[in-house]
């Protein structure tokens, strides 16, 4: 496996947890709001981490970055969320080097999304990239990789039909409502929260239900007013939340709070109510389902709903994977060039030193020594030798790391950095990452 060591003895890691193994409750514990993400970046910088990004969505929380050992990144995640190392170990994944690169490409192109072809995650990666860049936490490697992933995402979206048809968490929510609520056009619908998923849900509600009784409530009223102006829906004050809930037939919760915003105390009503919680962490206390007449549906359930659109999308996975392979090859070619360029320069310098030393000896021994002619010949020989090494390192079947190590040892170029003991670190932090 190729190593992506940019400085010292750091390794490139991708680690985190997603919908695949972590349920909504656990994802909620590791969820990072805007402030927590900012705090994590500042802590990383203070602790000497040179390059990383952090993303946190309803489906996953991940860190991509360089470290001596993955625990350095796990520690950042746990100390800035409500999750523990023990909980992380039970549901998390840790990839390094090429596997980490592969993972980022699949996430960024929607192949690893809870709903296949959902491209909302690439926007989160862009935001994470800009946040880290502001803190000077993006090195050349991560800059190039993220841009390659963004380009791959664009190409997959435009050159394949893997995102064709309307399928997303917000669309799934609206489809569930249409299928399970009779006469939805004339029902009262209340949307609480106007973040990205809330905005998308509201747009889908207006488009697909033709309902004129949609009400928005948001803690920051101006955001709700802005959205309402575009979609011609009603806005109410946050203080009127309980009163509006009494009158509604469908309540959609899409707030970004770290604790439940809807509980039994707010649901003082007698008629049936359908509640859809589209938040991570959960923003509706699960115990409301115990109230007679209340139906509570969470985002995870909606994401499991498959239809013909998703089945059609699966047919385009091979085409998407082919695009990813092309982009990865281009990225790895660039990376290998960065790897072997310094060793080629160092080898050339070493050969020049050897030649200069030998020529100095021969100059003393030989009368009428033609310095210019000998310098020209030796320079041409050295160039041919280094060209052969460069061609070898460029070959796609070459293990660049092993070849560089070999050249360093044979020509005694530089010294290899001491290895960090993973077992010692795991012992120190009492963590098993096997």
Describe, in plain words, how this protein is organized in 3D.
Residues 415-434 have low confidence and may be disordered. This protein folds into 3 domains: 11-164 and 313-326, Beta Polymerase, domain 2; 169-306, NAD(P)-binding Rossmann-like Domain (Rossmann fold, 3-Layer(aba) Sandwich), CATH 3.40.50.720; 336-423, no CATH class. The strands form 2 sheets. Strands 7-6-5-8-9-10 form a 6-stranded parallel β-sheet, sandwiched between helices. With 434 residues, the chain is of the alpha/beta class. It has helices at residues 24-30, 34-46, 71-79, 85-91, 98-108, 120-134, 140-159, 169-180, 196-209, 221-231, 241-247, 299-303, 308-314, 317-365, 371-394, 400-410, 422-429; strands at 11-18, 52-56, 60-67, 93-96, 189-192, 214-217, 234-235, 250-253, 273-277, 294-298.
